[in-house]
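Researcher: Next entry in the queue.
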Amino acid sequence: MRIATLMTMLAAPLALAACDSAEENAGTAEDMPMAQDMPMAGDMPMHAANGQTATGQGKVTAIDAEAGTITIDHDPIPEANWPAMTMGFKADEAARTKVEVGDKVEFELKLSGNAGEITRIETQ
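Model: Structure for this entry, 124 residues:
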């Protein structure tokens, strides 16, 4: 019985100290440097080195000439550590006119953080 009491007396201050420490360090995700560098898709971190290139395959789901983007439902892109998802990519006019909604494509990207710009796109 004495051991249990002693253990409780020793553990209580440690538990309180841990709670105080967590409150002092609490912040929002925006306050944390990781928030800008490691965007999240579900539970999987997404990150790509700026200037790195990556290739992917997928299906064109939208083309927005005004925004200058092509939206692709793509397979995982290991070079960027991206899971399969649908996302829009910057694309010049030549790339946008080369494909149509519904086309299956293979594409190359220039990566920048959690975004990419299409540098090459071909229908399959």
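Model: The domain at 44-123 is CATH 2.40.50.320 (OB fold (Dihydrolipoamide Acetyltransferase, E2P)).
Researcher: Noted, moving on.
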